[in-house]
Amino acid sequence: MPRNLNAERDNPCLKEQELSFKCLNKNNFDRDKCEVYFANYNNCKEFWNKVRADRRGKGIAPYLPPLEERDAIKAEYLKAKPSQS
């Protein structure tokens, strides 16, 4: 459990961040062995930053959606995302 009780609410990429740290610890801080985790974390941050900007632009507050809405927002994005062939 994170030390900051609001960490999950404030950081939608907390799980990806923790997995990156865990990988680094497991691999003696060899960043090359954790590139997949870093890419996943960066993709997560990029996605939620776009969500924040979109909500801010539409005047929706809070800019970062509450925990209970995040799964639905991700599912909606994945449904609308064009497949890469």
UniProtKB/TrEMBL annotation:
**Keywords for this entry?**
Disulfide bond, Mitochondrion
Question: Is Nucleus among the key words of this record?
Answer: no
Name the coiled-coil region(s): none
Q: Where in the cell is it found?
A: Mitochondrion intermembrane space
Q: Quick one: a GO biological-process term for this protein? A: mitochondrial respiratory chain complex assembly
Q: Give the UniProt entry's GO cellular component terms.
A: mitochondrial intermembrane space
Superkingdom is Eukaryota
Note the InterPro entries from the entry: COX23, COX6B-like, Cys_alpha_HP_mot_SF
Pfam family, any one = COX6B
Q: Which family does it belong to?
A: Belongs to the CHCHD7 family.
What is the name of the protein in this document?
Coiled-coil-helix-coiled-coil-helix domain-containing protein 7
